[in-house]
Amino acid sequence: MRSIKEHISLIFPMVAILLGLEFFIAFDRTTKGYEESLKNSYSMLVVSKDEMDIDDFRAWDKHIYKVSEIEKSRIVKEVGLDLRDKDRYLSDELPNFYSIKLNKYLNTKELEQVKKNLLKSDRITRVESFDTLHNSNYGLFSSIKLAFRTFIFFMTVIGFFLIIKQMEVWHLLHSERMKIMDILGASLFLRSKALIVMALVDAIISAIIASIVFYLIQNSWVKGNHIAILEDNIDGLFSFNDVFTLIFASILIVLVAVVIVVLRVKEE
Amino acid sequence: MSDIIVAQNLTLSYERDEAVIRGASFNIKKGDFVFITGPSGSGKSTLLKSFYGNLKPSSGTLLMGGLNMNSISKPKLQELRRHLGIVFQDYRLINEWTVERNVVLPLWIAGYSKEVQRTQAKRLLHHVKLTGKENKYPLELSGGEQQRVGVARALSKNPFLILADEPTGNLDEYSSSVIWDLLENACRQLGTTVVVVTHKIPSVFNITYRHLTIDEYGAIYEVH
Questions:
Q1: CATH code 3.50.40 for A43-129
Q2: Which of A91, A159, B53, B209 is positioned for an S-S bond with A13, CB 3.0–4.6 A?
């Protein structure tokens, strides 16, 4: 019974930390996909006196990723002008319109800076960044991201506190045995073996539990809850490679904890 | 006979405290049975601790089996300890391990096979009159029985030196006599050197022994 309690006391905080880590990885991956789709669906409109190519734009701002010219005829059609043949020259007098895509998802300040940089050019007469729509998307997205990261941070901190508490318990349970074995000539490894084996087994169990929880989240909860951002990036939520990341992180954390306990006993 | 323990002008003290043992010089030869007596707090246990390297000499020299305890390395100390049998007043058994596992702990540390461990455990538990209690846990035994497990553990690897700290301190007469018999036999039959720290030398003792005593100033004398 005491042995089961001892295992659970480590597995519980470890699972909390690993879930925090996996949430962080998955959230980062998922939001990257979402950021990509926001980036792809966003473009600026630039009006210039002369024809310009991508290098001309890039000379003013490095975030310019793709430039496509908007046909003047399309502009004429969209504004509802009906130009007769003799007025065709008016069409030629129209400025050049460009749709510009950026290389990443920028925040409002950065967007404003891009606009300012482009307007430094004498050839550019107007830049429309559509920042109201962009701001609302970005604001919502940023606040969700911040709230989620804060939650993960606190979850991880609590997990670490529980592990520190568990290290105290380990010290009480194992120090006497380790001291006796030291007096009888056991090497440091032999003295710590029982603790190391127990911690490694618990680390692997914790990683498996965290992986199962995420697998279930991916395959049941997300599919049933219709959360667009998650559903659109469901494959990015959990990948098989994450199991190894979790096992590695889990082993690393418990080994650091074990080494601290062992060194503390050694110093006494 | 060769010297197992040699102390010259040995002074022992704990950090920042006054010296407990002062300028002691003595030697203990192979096959000796030695009692170390002295009043409470005179440094008997401290002296024993220095023999198994738990306390380094503050000054003077202490040689254990030819190894200088002033400058012994950790691996050498571990090796030395693996060849000692140590009996503690408070038994110092591993309470979450069975009696059998406790008895064969020195063999496990030395890497002996499970088969050897089992055979030796059976033989020793028979000697300490605890046959049938292999699978009990120390806290299920009486104090006397626990100490007999402690003695069996000390004897399990046929050490060249047994160090016993008040081995019969709080024990009943039966357990005490079993323990003295075992220590006597180890010395007589196997030629093991035995050093026992005690308040009182048993009235009936069947082999020749030496008696060192520590006075209240930390000096050590041989009583003839």
A1: no
A2: A159
**Cα distance between residue A231 and residue A233, in whole Å:** 5
Report residue A204's pLDDT band, with 50, 70 and 90 as the boundaries: very high
Q: Where are the domains of chain A?
A: 2-37+151-267, 43-129
Q: Residue B45: what residue type? A: S
Q: ipTM, 2 decimals? A: 0.90
Question: Looking at residue A85, what is its pLDDT?
Answer: 56
**Taking a C-beta distance cutoff of 8 angstroms, is the pair A268, A175 a contact?**
yes
- Please, which residues bridge with residue A45 across strands? A99, A128
pLDDT of the residue at A82 = 59
* Residues A38, A142: Cα–Cα separation, whole Å: 13
Helix axes A241-267, A188-216, angle to 10 degrees: 150
Kind of pairing, strands A96-102 and B59-64?
A: unpaired
Report residue A63 as tokens: 């975030």
- Length of chain B, in residues: 224
Q: Are strands A124-128 and B84-87 parallel, antiparallel or unpaired?
A: unpaired
| Contacts A185 to B, Cβ<8 Å | 77-84, 106, 109
For chain B, give the percent of residues with pLDDT over 70.
100
Q: Domains along chain B?
A: 1-83+182-224 (3.40.50.300), 90-158 (no CATH)
DSSP annotation of B140: G
User: Is B125:B134 a contact under the CB 8 Å cutoff?
Assistant: yes
Residue closest to A148 by CA, chosen among A13, A16, A28: A28
- Tell me, what's the pLDDT at A93? 74
The B-side interface with A (CB below 8 A) comprises 52, 54, 77-84, 86, 92-94, 96-97, 105-106, 109
Q: If you measure CA to CA, which chain A residue comes closest to B162?
A: A184
* Tens digits of residue pLDDT in B24-73: 999 999 999 999 999 888 889 999 999 999 999 999 999 999 999 999 99
User: For residue B108, what is the nearest residue in chain A, using CA coordinates?
Assistant: A186
Instruction: Point out the least confidently predicted range of A33-42, A210-219, B11-20, B189-198.
Output: A33-42
